[in-house]
C-alpha cells in the first residue's frame, strides 16, 4: 500500500473542493488549515456524511455552522436551479451539493487507479458522530469561503475525512 496515501487523499479532497466552489458556485474557497485529528467525534449544525468503500474505505463529512449554511444555501439552490424557499428542501440541497463534490473527488481517484464506490448521503445535522480512533484515522480540512465579487464573507466549511485503518 502507498505510504503517502492519506496525504494524497487529503490533498485531492482539498483541491477538488476548491475547484468545485470556483467552477460551480463562482465563489472562492481557501484551505485555511488541515491536518490529522484525534477528536473522538464530531457534531456540527449542518453535517452531510458520504460513506465510501473500495480500495480504501471511510467517510467524508461536509460540515458547516448555521451562518455558513444560511449564506451558501441560496447559492447552491440557484446553481442546481431549485426553489430554495420550499420547506424541508435544505437538507436535500446540501446532500446533493456534497454528492456532487464527492463524485468529483471519486473521479480523481478513479483516474489514479483506485476503485471506490460512494454510498447515498446521510444528513447528520446536530447529531454526535463518534469516531473510533483505534480503527479509524481522521483528517480535518477547514476552508474559508468568500464571494469576492460581492465582497462578502460566507463562512467556513469543514471537510472531515475518516479513513478505516488497514
Automatic annotation (TrEMBL):
Signal peptide feature range: none
Entry's transmembrane regions: none
Keyword Transport in annotation: no
BP GO annotations: chemotaxis
Entry keyword set: Chemotaxis
Keyword Iron-sulfur among record annotations: no
Pfam families: CheX
Domain Chemotaxis phosphatase CheX-like stretches: 49-144
Protein's UniProt name: Chemotaxis protein CheX
Amino acid at each position: 500500500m502507498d505510504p503517502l496515501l492519506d496525504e494524497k487523499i487529503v490533498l485531492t479532497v482539498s483541491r477538488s473542493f476548491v475547484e468545485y466552489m470556483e467552477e460551480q458556485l463562482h465563489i472562492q474557497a481557501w484551505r485555511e488549515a488541515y491536518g490529522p485529528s484525534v477528536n473522538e467525534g464530531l457534531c456540527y449544525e449542518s453535517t452531510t456524511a458520504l460513506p465510501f468503500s473500495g480500495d480504501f474505505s471511510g467517510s467524508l463529512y461536509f460540515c458547516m455552522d448555521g451562518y455558513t449554511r444560511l449564506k451558501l444555501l441560496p447559492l447552491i439552490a440557484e446553481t442546481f436551479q431549485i426553489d430554495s424557499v420550499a420547506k424541508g428542501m435544505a437538507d436535500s440541497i446540501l446532500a446533493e451539493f456534497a454528492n456532487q463534490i464527492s463524485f468529483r473527488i471519486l473521479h480523481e481517484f478513479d483516474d489514479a487507479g483506485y476503485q471506490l464506490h460512494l454510498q447515498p448521503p446521510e444528513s447528520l445535522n446536530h447529531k454526535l458522530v463518534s469516531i473510533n480512533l483505534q480503527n479509524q484515522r481522521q483528517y480535518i480540512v477547514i476552508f474559508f469561503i468568500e464571494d469576492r465579487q460581492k465582497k462578502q464573507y460566507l463562512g467556513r466549511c469543514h471537510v472531515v475525512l475518516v479513513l478505516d485503518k488497514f
